[in-house]
Amino acid sequence: MMQKNIKAETADPGLSEANDEDLNGQENGETDSGPEQAGENEQASSESDEKNQGGGDKLAKELDDMKHRYYRALADYQNLQRRTAKEQLEARGRGVEDFLKRLLPVIDTLDKAMEQISKSNIDKKIADGLEMFSIQFTDVLAKEGLKEIIAKGQKFDPNFHEAMCKRSVEDKDDEIVLAEFEKGYMFKERVLRTTKVEINQK
Question: In the chain, what are the domains?
Fold first, then answer.
């Protein structure tokens, strides 16, 4: 019995050494794999950061493009509003201009009537009433942009005057308007009708 125990004890140290080697090997293996695993983690983290950075740059570029498109669209819309408002104003102006052109013969008739009233013996109240009407009528037309072309005493200008005849007056400058036969009118800066005139010719 004693001998068997001794043999068993003799065998145990060998097994213990083998186990120690295995443990050491495992410890060494764990120690070797540690840095490699850390390197892989760092690499993966770096790649993730680069990917996130790339995605952020792309998003920022898309947002910048969207902002530029928005401002371009806004500018186009504002230009359209201004153009539409201008076209509407021009259309209204053309309508007023056409109306005033049709009204010119009425104005001529009123002017002639006022001249006749001043030369006749018509009742003063009637004459004053017609004169007041003429003044108010002229004021309304002026507010719409109608204005008379002043010709008499001015130098002849074919843009505003139409020479119907000529005569020579020594004490007047050449091409001075001597008389008006029919009044001319402008609508704002546009000539509706030139003034028919007589001019001096030396």
Answer: 67-144 (3.90.20), 147-202 (2.30.22.10)
